[in-house]
Structure formats: structure tokens, C-alpha cells
Design brief:
Distance between the termini of chain A: 60 Å
Order of helices and strands of chain A: HEHEHH
Number of strands of chain A: 2
Strand content of chain B: under 5%
Shape of chain A: rod-shaped
Number of helices of chain B: 9
Largest interface: A-B, 78 and 97 residues
Structural class of chain A: mainly alpha
Oligomer: heterodimer
Strand content of chain A: under 5%
Order of helices and strands of chain B: HHHHHHHHEHE
Largest sheet of chain B: none
Largest sheet of chain A: none
Structural class of chain B: mainly alpha
Radius of gyration of chain A: 30 Å
Radius of gyration of chain B: 35 Å
Helix content of chain A: over 70%
Distance between the termini of chain B: 33 Å
Shape of chain B: elongated
Number of strands of chain B: 2
Chain lengths: 122, 242
Amino acid sequence: MAEKFDNLEEHLEKFIENIRQLGIIVSDFQPSSQAGLNQKLNLMISGLQDIEKCRQQLHEINVPLEVFEYIDQGRNPQLYTKECLERALARNEQVKGKIDTMTKFKSLLVSELGKVFPEEMV
Amino acid sequence: MTEMFSTLFGQNEAQGPPGSSSLGFGPGKPPPPLPQNQASMTGQMPPQLGDEGPALRKPGAMNEPFYLLRELPVGNELTGNTNLITHYNLEHAYNKFCGKKVKEKLSNFLPELPGMIDCPGAQEGSSLRSLIDKPPVCGNSFSPLTGALLTGFRLHTGPLPEQYRLMHIQPPKKKSKHKHKHHRQQDPLPQETVNTTAVGLAQSCLNKHVNSVLLLSVSLQNRHSPDHPGLAGSQPNSNSLR
């Protein structure tokens, strides 16, 4: 599974680097740069083809929609994972507290019932 | 934070969850079986109190351990009584994300990505939400540009207009490995439309596919957490994007 991620990561890095260089070329264009520009454009298209091929290996990967909101706000998506773990732990503690309370109530109820209905509780 | 769940769950590890069948009640006196003659006369005779009360109970109620107390539902072995983070082997992930401070900005997550990525995507029209709301047309094949098509990318010489120069500018960093700083232009010159079209194409491609990089990099992070079951099965919300 890590291999397909490595493969995609490599293609994406090359693609982004190519786009960045394309932007540098057009930022101050010279006539001698036309051939390089054409090459970069076709390299961009081949990069898209490579990324498209990687798509088939990753069709079963699911990403929560909430992560998109973090990225759109310019926030670190690891914060989402952190908050998920913290929420899970808090919820776990809350439910455990309820279970403990109910257990104590049950033992208290049994003892009191034993006092009131000693014959039935034997 | 890491001390919280160890102290909370460490004391009660020896205590198992109460069995659903164990109510703490003894077998007690079983209710007397309903005699046939008395059952047929149930509708005629008025309800009697005392010892004859249980005899008038319905057959389905005979299984109740206590009056009006129905059978408990089948218990689940995995409850909130156990430390679920330990159960699902997420201790390493918990210590990694919650033990130390996670930086706030997106650029801390992807430090080598060029451009201003800490800005909200909605400002530049390159948000991931827009990709979901209006998915791009897929399925068409990518074919290289021929000579005739490349004529549309014949650019004019000279630097970019002012509004397009900020694409390469990044916030100052202590150890910057990018080469954008020396490309800042000083003298604005008018440009032709063809030059602007190429810049717009490059910029839109960079913005949209940077979002794809960010999206897939989130999946890559799971690769670095050992024994992580993945995001799909462990999230409280059921919404997910395939």
C-alpha cells in the first residue's frame, strides 16, 4: 500500500515542480524560452497522464469531508486527526463515567432490595 | 493529556463489565405454575391479590426475573468501559498528535509546496469544496499538444503584469530553499493577451492540482502511523469522499 502512495507522491512532486518552472518561464518570457515552454506544457500533460494512471490504485481510499474544510482554511489537517482523537477520548471517558455510575446504582439497588425483600432476593 | 487515560483506565482494568445476565438477584421463589383450571377461569374471576397474584400473570411474563423488569438486551463485549484507544492500537498515533504540539498552518504540514497555501482557498476560487460541489469533467484522455495547438502559446517578451507577480512570492522563511525571491519584478510593462492566457493557465493548474496534492498528502500521513486502521472506519461521521 505504501508503494502506490510513493508512486503518486513522486508524480505529484514532479508535476508541481514542472508547473513552478513553467510559472518562472512565463514570469519574464524571452523568445529563446519558447521551445522550453512548449516542452514544459507537454511535460505537464504527460504528468497528468501519469497521475491519472495512479488513480486506479487509490479508488478505495476514503478521506473524511471535514479534512477538506481544514485545508480550505489553510489549517494543518493533522489538527483534524488530533481533535478526532481528543473527542474520542473525551467521549470514552464520558461513557465510562455513565457505566460506573450505573454499576454503583445497581449495587446500591440490590442491597436496598435485599433489605426490603429479603426472601425474594435470596 | 497522556496521563489522563492511563490513570483513568489503569485502575479498572481488573474489573470486567457486568454481565447482562447477572442482575444480582437470586433465583428467589419461582412463581407458581398456572393451573389449567385456574387459567380458564382468569377472565371470569376478578384479579386476586396476595399469593395468587403471580398466578394470573401472562405466560410471556413468566420469564421476567422481576415484575415489570424485562429481559436485558444482549450485552456487547466492547463498551466505553474499556480504553478504546488502547484497544485499537492507537497509542502511538495519540502520542504523536496529542502528546506534542501540532502546528497550526498548512505550510507547516507541506513546507516544500510553493505558493501561498496558508490563505483560504475560497478567496482564490481554488477550494476543495468547490471541487466537490462542481466536480471537473473527467474521463477525457490527455493528448500532447501538436504544433498547431502550440501556436496559441506563443508569448510576448517581457515581465508579467503587476497582478500576476504575487504568484511566486512566499512568506519569508528562515531556511528557504525556493528560488522565487530573485524573480520579483520592479518595472511593470504592458503585456499582450497571449502572455496573460499562458500565465492564467499555469496559475489555475497550479492552484487546482496543489489542492489534489494536499488532499492526497493527508492520505499519505496515515502511512506513517503504524497499525492505523485507516480513516474510513474510525470516524464518527459517515460522510466520506471516494
